[in-house]
Write a structure and sequence with these properties.
Helix content is about 40%, strand content about 25%. The chain is an alpha+beta fold and about 220 residues long. It folds into two domains: about 90 residues, no CATH class; about 90 residues, Sandwich (Immunoglobulin-like). The strands form two sheets. Strands 7-6-5-8-9 form a five-stranded antiparallel sheet, with no helix packed on it. A four-stranded antiparallel sheet has the order 3-2-1-4, with no helix packed on it. β8 and β9 form a beta hairpin.
């Protein structure tokens, strides 16, 4: 009996036979992927905080080196933990995730309540001429043009506004202690301001900011 000739459709099905779906291998791959994402997430947070403290204690450059060195060691580390990714796109996702979370954790680590790397800011300096308070310095515009029109022999008082991301601990004006009144720091005693104004401010972490303003010695 002659063998039946296969139709073109049957031959095409045999030629392009779809491989069987391996459920076990798929689940193993997905498990590795999930494990890898968790490891990347936790590692990025840990290295981010390490980088933050290295920046505070040593240098920013070393903090960055630690982060990028960890990134280059990521693939062999995940391989040893049996948590590596199978697809190229998954690796790209893992690298981007690591960089973003690492940088975010690093930023959190160098800011309160963990650390304070920012010095106080002297926001404004004002003098009182017997009638009104006149601004002679403002952040970040710096020295005001008003300084040239003030009759300095009539100036009776001075006050400064100082802020910090944690807490301002001490302020001095021309070496004299200033105390806060209505949101401004004013000297506890009369001071001589003809010729110069020097303001120093400290925060809780010991950071110091100094501002020097040269003023006319006469009217």
């Amino acid at each position: 009996m002659a063998k039946r000739r296969k139709t073109p459709e049957e031959e095409e099905k045999e030629l392009f036979k779809e491989p069987e779906f391996d459920v076990v291998e798929f689940l193993k791959s997905e498990l590795k992927k999930a494990k890898g994402i968790i490891v990347v997430f936790l590692l990025a947070i840990f290295i981010g905080f390490i980088s933050g403290y290295i920046q505070v204690l040593v240098s920013t450059a070393l903090a960055a080196i630690v982060g990028f060195a960890t990134l280059f060691a990521l693939k062999p580390l995940l391989h040893r933990l049996n948590a590596e990714f199978q697809k190229r796109n998954d690796w790209v996702y893992a690298i981007i995730t690591f960089l973003l979370i690492w940088f975010l954790a690093w930023t959190v680590a160098i800011n309160p309540p963990f650390n304070d790397v920012s010095p106080p800011q002297i926001r404004s300096v004002e003098v009182y001429n017997g009638t009104a308070w006149i601004t002679i310095y403002s952040f970040p515009q710096e020295i005001s043009k008003n300084i040239k029109s003030i009759k300095w022999d009539e100036v009776e008082d001075i006050r400064v506004k100082v802020t910090d991301n944690v807490e301002v601990t001490d302020v001095t004006i021309n070496g004299k202690t200033a105390v806060i009144k209505n949101g401004y720091y004013e000297p506890e005693e009369n001071i001589q301001i003809l010729g110069k104004i020097e303001i120093q401010a400290w925060d809780k972490a010991g950071h110091k900011t100094t501002l020097k303003i040269t003023v006319p010695t006469g009217t």
